[in-house]
Design goal:
Length: 604
DNA sequence: CTTAGGG
DNA sequence: CCCTAAG
């Protein structure tokens, strides 16, 4: 039924939705507030709010036992959320639990305890398989505490929002949180409480808090002030703070048939508008751990979700709007985007769409990914949504590739259809498979270069043209090479131009004249005609030359892949210069250092 | 912007 | 070749 792990996330979402509108219709659809609070069970079974000392104690206990304490998932599963570290049972004994339930909990929970000897299947049926609870979960339950193992099922029926994964869960209810004004600990302790706290006195629901109150709560939670007036943001932050490392969904996204059908409208709007930012994406259905086959996506900056979160809220936030988009966040780098896309492509979020222009939210391994159809060289593929509003300089735009091709065709007069068609399947394959968008686009480009540009001006062409000749043809012409500039600007990437021998010679000469690293001078004085060679290019080429020259075996003929046979005398020159420059300068600098340190130490 | 270095 | 981090 739920065998397909990949569909798990989606199924889960469906379940939530159905539950909210179905069996739980008596509850307020989305915002049914449930709050938690750390309490102590007194001798008579009554609940006593925890004192600060107790909070601290609990915290210490948790830290102390963090390592060796086994995870007892069962009590956890009765909760709306689960702290990522440690188990509540570390500080609340099972007896307390039972007493807790008996004294404070009406029917259902007591029932659960009493009926815990029912067959697992029965309870599963009773819960109408609302969730595809991983088998492992039950296994663990059985191992650890056989007699409580069945509780979750029914409890889940009551509070179907739970999804536990390796001790971390995703809380799908929108405004559930603990407003106990104490940092972190409440979050940990909540797991030890019973699921339904809506009747516990003293609770506070964030949903109803004013901005000021939210700010207060924020301060109480994080120990610092905030100026944010964004309710949604505040609530999320507080929740995250309480949940600790567990990722709090920004909103309640519900996926049905790959369509976004429910949830926080703001967030949906955000998605639609393409304002989905890094954080939103991260906060989608995603878990740090993946025992259930739902792979967690590590943050691409190499931070844990927590770290990222900290980064974001620790800044001097100055949030303008309710939409929360004002959050100042590091602009994802090109590479980041590419890698992210790649990753998501790997995840297999390639879902063909009938409506090419449709933006959809698809669930991929428990993560909601908003995608859009894009036309790449004539074929439609689905790619993770990225806002079309350019925030930095153009990346190798997919559309540009199309232009690129057209231009090339124009020049080449008669592009073989077969050639194009040949490349497309390969492209599609690439996109579908591991290489991802990045590789795909590069692939296209490369092919384009090969197929259409090389014939126009090849290495041979360049070799034949004397640099001096080109020189005289006008230095203003960055490229008198046909349509190179057009192509270049269209592709957004510099056209690869093989280095000619004469260029290399000039380079070497320049290096010998002005020294290694003086690329600007070399370019100015020796490369004025070659405006397409940047200083970086010179540097790169020099690096390559050095590499080549150092690996002396290169002489033979190992460079058959068209890498141009560099005359040995040049190589020798390079090696000479490299040796003259690198080791000696090192020695020199070393000597200088010694000199300096000696003088510093009073010698000399 | 220039350099240096990693990708 | 691209991208970034440092000066």
């Amino acid at each position: 039924m739920f065998g397909n792990v990949k569909d798990y996330g989606e199924t889960f979402q469906d379940s939530i939705f159905q539950t909210r509108n179905g069996s739980l219709s008596s509850t307020n659809q989305i915002g049914n507030p449930v709050t938690y609070k750390l309490v102590r069970v007194a001798g008579d079974g009554s609940l006593v709010p925890a004192t600060d000392e107790e909070m601290l104690e609990v915290k210490n206990l948790l830290e102390k036992n963090e390592q060796d304490m086994p995870v007892l998932p069962d009590p956890i599963q009765t909760e709306e959320y689960i702290p990522d570290e440690g188990s509540p049972s570390q500080f609340l004994q099972l007896e307390n639990f039972e007493g807790f339930f008996q004294s404070e909990t009406a029917g259902p929970y007591t029932e659960n305890l009493n009926s815990r000897h029912e067959s697992k299947e029965e309870l599963m049926n009773g819960s109408q398989m609302l969730f595809a609870l991983p088998d492992t979960k039950f296994q663990i339950s059985t191992e650890l505490s056989g007699n409580v193992e069945l509780v979750p099922s029914k409890v889940l029926l009551q509070e179907p929002i739970l999804f536990s994964s390796n001790g971390c869960s995703i809380n799908q209810s929108t405004d559930v949180l603990n407003a106990t004004a104490s940092p972190k600990e409440p979050a940990l302790s909540t797991a030890a409480s019973k699921p339904d706290f809506s009747r516990v006195p003293g609770e506070i629901s964030l949903a109803n808090l004013s901005i000021k109150e939210l700010q207060e709560t924020f301060r109480a939670t994080f120990g610092r002030e905030t100026t944010s007036k964004d309710k949604r943001w505040l609530k999320r932050r507080i929740k995250m703070g309480l949940i600790n490392s567990c990722v709090v969904p920004t909103t309640t996204l519900t996926i049905n048939d790959s369509k976004l059908i429910g949830g926080d409208q703001d967030a949906i709007d955000a998605f639609s508008k393409g304002t989905v930012d890094e954080e939103t994406a991260t906060e989608s259905i995603d878990t740090p751990a993946s025992p259930d086959g739902i792979k967690g996506h590590s943050n691409d900056f190499g931070h844990s979700p927590v770290e990222t979160f900290v980064d974001h809220y620790s800044g001097n936030e100055d949030f303008e709007g309710e939409d929360g988009s004002a959050k100042r966040v590091r602009k994802p780098t090109r590479r980041y985007i590419e890698e992210t896309n790649e990753k998501q492509q790997i995840d297999g979020s390639m879902i063909p769409s009938k409506d090419p222009s449709s933006i959809q939210a698809v669930s991929s391994e428990g993560r909601v990914v908003v995608t859009r159809m894009v036309s790449l060289a004539g074929s439609r593929i689905q790619v993770p949504y990225v806002s079309h509003v350019r925030r930095s300089r153009p990346r190798e735009n997919i559309m540009a590739l199309g232009e690129f091709r057209s231009k090339s065709w124009e020049v080449k007069a008669a592009p073989e259809e077969g050639n194009l068609n040949l490349s497309l399947p390969q492209l599609s394959n690439d996109v579908n498979r591991v290489p991802g968008v990045k590789s795909a686009s590069r692939c296209v480009q490369k092919e384009s270069d090969k197929d259409h540009l090389k014939p126009i001006f090849t290495d041979v062409d360049q070799e034949m043209m004397e640099p001096e000749l080109l020189d005289s043809s006008g230095d203003s012409s960055d490229d008198n090479f046909v349509d190179a500039p057009i192509t270049q600007s269209a592709s957004g990437r510099k056209l690869h131009r093989a280095w000619t021998i004469s260029e290399v010679e000039k380079l070497v000469e320049g290096v010998s004249k002005y020294g290694v690293g003086k690329w600007t001078e070399i370019k100015k004085l020796s490369f004025s005609p070659y405006t397409h060679r940047t200083t970086v290019d010179l540097k790169d080429k020099w690096r390559n030359l050095q590499k080549a020259s150092s690996s002396n075996r290169m002489e033979g003929g190992l460079k058959k892949h068209g890498s141009m046979a560099i005359p040995t005398h040049i190589m020798l020159q390079v090696r000479e210069l490299a040796q003259k420059q690198s080791p000696i300068s090192r020695v020199v600098s070393k000597a200088r250092v010694v000199k300096r340190s000696r003088s510093r130490n009073g010698f000399l």
